[in-house]
Amino acid sequence: MGGSLILFALVLLSLGVWRAVVGSVSVTAITSRKVEAFYWMTILFSNTLGTALGDWLADSGPGYEGGALIFGAMLAVIAAAYFVTEISHTLLFWAAFILTRPLGATLGDLLTKPVANGGFNLSRIESSATIAVFILGCILVLPQRAGRHPGEA
């Protein structure tokens, strides 16, 4: 838990310095090398935080399934907040971005850890194939729409 708290502090610090220097932490405003450096620094800390947090939660009680359900539910709350509140979309983006990492860590562990430890004991190839099928299913089922570059009108 201590490591997760340190990493969370580093994420907040990187976002705070980024905002103080640039004026925004929006990923739609990454238009210079300086902003891109802040972005990648924040990504580094948030990825590491997410993995550490996912492992800590799964190992401290609810297990891999429980951890995945907790992080999935938190992401659902953020998605709902995006559509029904006026909360900053930039804040919601970073919250969701950070939470996708522990969700991935707990789901990855769920697929690959031995059954005796609460996992499904799939090999790396089997777990990768499972994830690939899921992603392809999402692409086929969920509507896709083209994005816009921030500089476009």
Identify the overall geometry: globular
End-to-end Cα distance, whole Å, is 45 Å
Global mean pLDDT: 90
* Residues in β-strands, percent: under 5%
Binned, the helix content reads: over 70%
Number of strands: 0
Could you state the order of secondary-structure elements as H and E? HHHHH
Rg over CA atoms, rounded to whole Å, is 17 Å
Structural class by SSE content: mainly alpha
- What is the overall number of helices? 5
Q: Report the uncertain regions.
A: none
Number of domains: 1
Describe the structure in your own words.
The structure is a single chain. By secondary structure, this protein is an all-alpha fold. It has one domain. It has helices at 2-22, 33-59, 63-84, 89-112, 124-141. The model has no long low-confidence stretch (mean pLDDT 90).
Topology readout:
Elements: H1 2-22, H2 33-59, H3 63-84, H4 89-112, H5 124-141
Helix pairs in contact: 1-2, 2-3, 2-4, 3-4
Task: For the structure shown, list the relevant keywords.
5 helices, 153 residues
Short description:
The protein has 153 residues and is mainly alpha-helical.
